[in-house]
Amino acid sequence: MPSRTRDGARADQRSGQGQAWRGDRHQDADIACHGERFPPQHEIFPRDIITGFVATYNGTEIFRATLFPAIAANPFIAFHTVAVESGTIEFEWTGDNGYAVTEQAKIIVE
């Protein structure tokens, strides 16, 4: 039996579904998103995440991170280095299904 709001309407009829008031009875699925996405045929999408990040400075590796499924969907990665000469920092992201992207940033030391 659906829970009722203070004004007598059923909880699933209230605007802003997913809101809960004290005393309301809800299933967890009413309030929280389970995080899985389903296409129309209700098949789970295959995993497709970034699994690695490497930064090199003039060809020398200065930072490496291995990322796992529990990492945020859009992780913030920060690292420190000291620029001792002009050159290029290269950033490389790798992931599932052959994903690979490389970007470069030029550094000028005067």
How are the secondary structure elements laid out?
Blueprint: H1 28-31, E1 50-57, E2 60-66, E3 87-95, E4 100-107
Antiparallel strand pairs: 1-2, 1-3, 3-4
Helix-strand makeup class? mainly beta
Widest sheet, order of strands: 2-1-3-4
Instruction: Give the N-terminus to C-terminus distance in angstroms.
Output: 73 Å
Count of alpha and pi helical runs:
1
Count of beta strands: 4
- The proportion of strand residues reads 25-35%
Instruction: Report helical residue fraction.
Output: under 10%
Most strands sheet:
4 strands, antiparallel
Topology pattern, helix = H, strand = E? HEEEE
* Low-confidence parts: none
C-alpha Rg, in Å? 24 Å
Instruction: Tell me the quaternary state.
Output: single chain
What is the molecular shape? elongated
> How many domains?
2
Average pLDDT works out at 77
